[in-house]
Structure formats: structure tokens, C-alpha cells
Amino acid sequence: MARLFIFGLGYTAGRFAQEMRARGWHVDATGSAGNVEFSDRRAVGEALASATHVLSSVPPDRESGRDPVLHGHGDKFGEPWLGYLSSTGVYGDAAGAWVDEHSPTGGGRRTARSKADSGWLELGARVFRLPGIYGPGRSIFERLEAGKAHRIDLPGQVFSRVHVDDIVAGVVAAIESGAPAGAYNLADDLPTSQNAVVEEAARLLGIDPPPLQTIEEADLSPMARGFYAENRRVANGKAKRVLGWEPRYPTYREGLAAIRAQA
Question: What InterPro entries does the entry give (predicted)?
Fold first, then answer.
């Protein structure tokens, strides 16, 4: 039986775990919904010793900048299939231009993430670089309903995004295809402004979108301001060619419509 060990059973990794269990895999994991305590080195070591596949979704520590998985357990991996859920934030600001897996990394605001990304690549992992993640229970709909959604007046500002189920499909494709180690961007086909996403979600809800504001008027948190400080389009061609992956939700329109229909 194939055995999967997941570091960090959060939103995205949790969906992946559900899929793999449905396929008959045995899954162990750390995290609040997992069955192994991250700090228990013996328990983690025992689970890793029998794992055929290992996936980490744990981000770098905010204070130290270290990847806690590589720092705390990287010596126990052996030779399983390795996967890491990274971020397209490693590319930094591209002034709206396209970035792919050959684009330079480490020049943006996420230097710790870039170091972790490089560390996993050095171990021979499949590193999945993810843009803004959305899906059931975690989308613009919740922000609109809570009155926390914004439309910011920043002409030319675009972002890439990906539905959580397309991430799961991409990781599954990497396993099933025997894809080589390396970086893979998992993003949809249509980078677009956040305003367009807000407006489409409001239309589906049958409500008026929030008013257009300057970034100063919106009084955003430092984290949200950082989100708007970078402007790039993420190319997904390598994942399509090498993994044989095609996003089920190629744009935000299909993704939002599916979430609304499920609700």
C-alpha cells in the first residue's frame, strides 16, 4: 500500500489527503487535524520510515525564517517521493509581466519562502508554486458577505490564482506521471485584477460590489498591502506539458460558479 506523510494538514493539504484516502492510500499527517505530533521526533521518524511519499505544506517560520520541516526533520526523509507546496511569491514583482519556472526567484518580499523553495529543490522535491488559493469555504464570497472585500483603484494590477481542487489534481498528476523533480507553477489560465473577481462574485450573489477605493482609503493591513505591492502573471505551461495537467477551473469565472453552485 502506498503511504503518504503530510507535514501540515491545512486547507489545501487536507483536500489532498481526502483525495488520496479515497484512492486507497494510507495517510499520516501533522497539524491540528493530523494524527502525528510535529514536535514528536520519534513518531515523525517512524511515520517517515514507512512513507512512500512525503508532502509538506508548512511555510517558513515568521520569526527565524527557517523551514521548520527541513530544519527539524529533514534528516529523516530517506528516499521517498518528495513534494512541497510553495508560493509564486518567490518570483517577486514582475511589473505585470509573465513569470515561469525559469524566472529568477528570491528578489521579492518572501525571502524566507524562496530559501525554503530552494532547499526542497536541492533535496530533489517536486515544488509546486502556488498563487492565490481559493475554494469552498475560502473565497471572495466570504469576504463579500462579511463586508471585508475591496476594489482598489490600481490600473494594470493583475494577480494569478488557482482553485484548491486544481492544486490537488496537479500534485496527483505529478505522482501518477512520474514527473521529474523540479518546480511547477500551478495557476489558472487567466491572470486578472482582484476587482474583476470581486465584481463577478458580487454578480453571482446578486449584490452590488463594494465601491472603488484608493489603497489609502481602503486602510489595508500590512499583509494586504504587500499583496498589492506585487504585480505578475504566472505561466502554467510546464505543468501542462510535463504533468499532463489541465485546470478544471481555467478562470475565476468557472471556479466561482462552481463554489456558488455547491453552496
Answer: NAD(P)-bd_dom_sf
Single-letter amino acid code for the residue at 90: V
Q: Which domain covers residue 89, as residue numbers? A: 80-262
Output the CA–CA distances (angstroms, integers) from residue 6 to 60, 96, 181, 197, 243, in the order listed. Answer: 16, 34, 18, 31, 21
Retrieve residue 256's grid coordinates: 466561482
Q: What DSSP designation does 5 have?
A: E
Tell me what the mean pLDDT of segment 7-24 comes to.
98
Set of cell numbers at residue 221:
493591513
Number of domains in the chain: 1
> 176 lies in a domain?
yes
Domain assignment present for residue 59? The answer is no
The answer to whether residue 33 sits within a structural domain is no
Instruction: Please check the confidence at residue 46 and state whether its pLDDT lies above 80.
Output: yes
Round to whole Å and give the CA distance between 212 and 196.
12
Q: Distance between CA atoms of 3 and 176, rounded to whole angstroms?
A: 14
3-state secondary structure of 224: helix
Q: Strand 3-7 to strand 132-134: parallel, antiparallel, or no bridges (unpaired)?
A: unpaired
Cα–Cα dist 237/247, whole Å: 11
pLDDT digits (tens, 9 = 90+) for 203-231: 999 999 999 999 999 888 888 888 888 99
pTM for the predicted model, two decimal places: 0.97
Q: What is the CATH number of the domain that holds 228?
A: 3.40.50.720
Residue 101 per-residue DSSP state: T
Residue type, 85: L
pLDDT digits (tens, 9 = 90+) for 54-113: 999 999 998 899 999 999 999 889 889 999 999 999 999 999 999 999 999 987 777 999
- Cα–Cα distance between 162 and 192 in angstroms, integer? 12
What DSSP string runs through 102-120? TS--S-SS-HHHHHHHHHH
> Mean pLDDT over all residues of the chain?
95
